[in-house]
């Protein structure tokens, strides 16, 4: 037999895969020769969601099912996150053409579902040359199987005690024949020989190459001939076969023990953690040295790249622990929505290699593939208010978004905007990468004068409030997710404009010093906004520069109210307002009242009272005491040598009423009797006094028969007309 023959291994330093595909779209399938397996990947966009493979050899085609793959050295998986399906085929897989353990030729069929629902078959062929020399013993811990291969000259390997060999040897002498048999060592059970074909029926495969002996076991903790043992706090799956053959007086025994950590990794709140015993007994014992490396997706990383990704590899005397931070490069992060809650999970496909050199001088190389994933995690987005008050623009940062999450719309204080509409409306939405991660973020910029709510919760405090409803979608299924946020910008010492009033001889002068937030309010006179046009129309004198606003209001201009009128003086009041532009709510006001000297005046009040002070000195021989209104019983309330003062309700003293479509006019006459040199009889001079009100401001007069005007009427004293008695 060939087990005692030492075989040298010829090493080819480069990998030369050759692929031949039938009618295969370019880029649909890729093949890569790795250290100990061929990797075949196909994009799901081409192959669909349920591709499958068949192994092809001279005997026909062999569907690679889950069970068949674990027995024959194939690991097939569909990986939605990276968007492909992959097949890892061991160099010692069942239907691989092996040339001297140096060149390996593979042939597969890829079967997909075509547009009509039928099968579409594509052939894929690849040849790999050995990229790395074989170690005396190599162990592969795949996802679905464990595989060990030993050099043909090796018999007793480390990890086997003298008692183990003594028991096995005794059984071999008594029961073995010249053909090969296998015994599975299990604690507390007697060794029972069986043929390789009987072992094959249990899922265990023994395979002889030109220079190596291969054993493969399904990776199923608690399998028929396997056992799970605790080693330094970690569960280890162990299958311990001994292959034996007796030829005359010689017994050949080969130890094919295989052991793999069953640790599936755990999430510790910061990342994924996986561990394995530093000394993986019973695979090795009496450890002299060990070289440990790690990587992802079947490729090892050097120390610089491991550190750059934030991975950590901690090695103690008993345990090797690997930590991979959440969302670190090399893994896959997936987002989805449940009950409008943003969830994520993170998957990483760990690749681990350890080279043992034990006290017997035999090197064992172990390789392990271990997919790990976090539990479903509720992901909390980060909102940062980056607003700079002086810029007068809300700047809001929405972060911690995975690559498969896009922002498609925003609702700002009840106003909906798509991304395009927001841009057209002067809003700015920018996607930016998140530092030191694969995440991204969005920055939203909204000017204060756009759709912002202004509040004044307390005196002197101004708040701008922006309620945001982000509409995000999870790709590729475009699943919507809504995220609410509110941001506030506060300004202190914000007060409405303050006016100072000064009484002049025939006017009132107002002045307001400008402050930064004056634009928040409008300055008004009554219901009207104070503008240059209004000032010019009413005869106000207004000056406005960068420092202050000055308004001088001449006496008897529109907007005055008058009280306490007598022959000596009267009180004139003019009010200027500061109010909110939208609500017209008055925030501050100044009603400046000044005493003015009485000369001649007519006042038409909003309560329907006409007050007149008229000068009669210019009428020769006049007697103020003899003056009256149309109703002669209505006499002056006050008089002196030159003037008379009448004050009466508009519905008394014989007042006449006229109206047209726009105005209501009340008119009376002051009759002054006096003597004339040309006429012996007494002469009367009549002065017409008139108050005109706009009809639009007198609705209560007609609705409730009560005089109440919205604003004072406009009064006039007409030319004197002499009349003979």
UniProtKB/TrEMBL annotation:
Residues 603-725 form the ZP domain. Keywords: Signal. It comes from the Eukaryota. The keyword Signal applies. InterPro entries: Ig-like_ZP, ZP-N, ZP_dom. It holds the Pfam family ZP-N. Residues 1-21 form the signal peptide. PROSITE patterns: ZP_2. This is ZP domain-containing protein. It comes from Oncorhynchus mykiss (Rainbow trout).
């Amino acid at each position: 037999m060939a087990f005692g023959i030492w075989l040298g291994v010829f090493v080819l330093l480069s990998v030369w895969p050759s692929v031949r595909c039938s009618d295969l779209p370019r880029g649909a399938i890729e093949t890569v020769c790795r250290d100990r397996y061929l990797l075949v990947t196909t994009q799901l966009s081409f192959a669909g969601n349920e591709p499958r493979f068949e192994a092809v050899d001279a005997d026909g085609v062999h569907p690679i099912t889950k069970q068949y793959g674990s027995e024959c050295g194939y690991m097939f998986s569909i990986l939605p996150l990276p968007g492909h399906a992959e097949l890892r085929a061991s160099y010692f897989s069942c239907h691989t053409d092996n040339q001297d353990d140096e060149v390996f030729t593979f042939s597969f069929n890829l079967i997909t579902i075509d547009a009509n629902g039928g099968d579409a078959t594509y052939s894929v062929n690849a040849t790999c040359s050995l990229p790395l020399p074989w170690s005396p013993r190599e162990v592969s811990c795949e996802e679905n199987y464990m595989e060990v291969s030993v050099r043909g000259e090796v018999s007793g390997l480390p990890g086997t005690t003298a008692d183990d060999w003594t028991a096995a040897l005794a059984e071999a002498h008594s029961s073995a024949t010249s053909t090969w048999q296998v015994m599975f060592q299990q604690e507390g059970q007697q060794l029972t020989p069986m043929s390789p074909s009987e072992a094959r029926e249990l899922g265990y495969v023994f395979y002889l190459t030109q220079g190596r002996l291969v054993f493969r076991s399904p990776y199923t903790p608690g399998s028929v001939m396997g056992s799970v043992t605790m080693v330094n706090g970690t569960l280890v799956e162990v299958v311990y076969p001994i292959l034996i053959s007796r030829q005359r007086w010689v017994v050949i025994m080969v130890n094919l023990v295989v052991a793999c950590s069953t640790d599936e990794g755990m999430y510790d709140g910061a990342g994924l953690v996986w561990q394995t015993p530093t000394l993986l007994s019973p695979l090795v014992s009496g450890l002299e040295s060990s070289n440990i490396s790690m990587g992802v997706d079947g490729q090892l990383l050097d120390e610089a790249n491991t550190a750059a990704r934030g991975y950590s590899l901690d090695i103690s005397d008993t345990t090797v622990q690997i930590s991979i931070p959440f969302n670190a490069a090399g893994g896959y992060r997936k987002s989805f929505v449940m009950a409008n809650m943003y969830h994520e999970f993170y998957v990483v496909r760990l690749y681990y290699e350890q080279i043992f050199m034990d006290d017997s001088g035999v090197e064992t190389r172990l390789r392990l593939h271990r997919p790990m994933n976090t539990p479903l995690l509720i992901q909390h987005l980060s909102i940062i208010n980056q607003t700079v008050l002086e810029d007068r623009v809300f700047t809001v940062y929405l972060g911690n978004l995975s690559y498969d999450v896009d922002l498609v719309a925003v609702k700002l204080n009840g106003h909906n905007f798509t991304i395009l509409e927001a841009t057209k409306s002067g809003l700015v939405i920018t996607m930016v990468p998140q530092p030191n991660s694969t995440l991204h973020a969005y920055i939203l910029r909204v000017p204060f004068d756009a759709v912002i709510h202004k509040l004044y919760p307390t005196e002197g405090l101004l708040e701008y409030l922006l309620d945001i409803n982000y509409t995000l979608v999870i790709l590729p299924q475009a699943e919507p997710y809504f995220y609410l946020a509110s941001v506030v910008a506060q300004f202190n010492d914000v007060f409405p404009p303050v006016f100072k009033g000064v009484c002049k001889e025939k006017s009132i002068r107002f002045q307001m010093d400008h402050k930064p937030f004056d634009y928040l309010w409008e300055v008004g006179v009554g219901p009207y906004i104070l503008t240059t046009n209004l000032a010019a129309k009413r005869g106000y004198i207004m000056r406005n520069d960068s420092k202050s606003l000055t308004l001088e209001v001449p006496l008897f201009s529109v907007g005055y109210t008058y009280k306490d009128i007598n022959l000596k003086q009267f009180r004139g009041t003019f009010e200027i307002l500061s109010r909110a532009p939208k609500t017209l709510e008055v925030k501050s006001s100044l009603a400046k009242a000044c005493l003015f000297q009485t000369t001649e005046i007519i006042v038409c009040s909003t309560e329907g009272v006409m007050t007149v002070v008229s000068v009669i000195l210019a009428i020769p021989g006049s007697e103020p005491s003899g003056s009256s209104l149309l109703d002669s019983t209505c006499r002056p309330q006050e008089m002196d040598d030159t003037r008379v003062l009448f004050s009466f309700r508009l519905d008394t003293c014989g007042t006449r009423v006229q109206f047209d479509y726009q105005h209501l006019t009340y008119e009376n006459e002051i009759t002054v009797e006096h003597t004339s040199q040309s006429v012996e009889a007494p002469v009367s001079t009549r002065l017409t006094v008139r108050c005109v009100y706009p009809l639009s401001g007198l609705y209560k007069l007609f609705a409730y028969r009560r005089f109440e005007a919205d604003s004072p009427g406009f009064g006039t004293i007409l030319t004197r007309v002499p009349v003979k008695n």
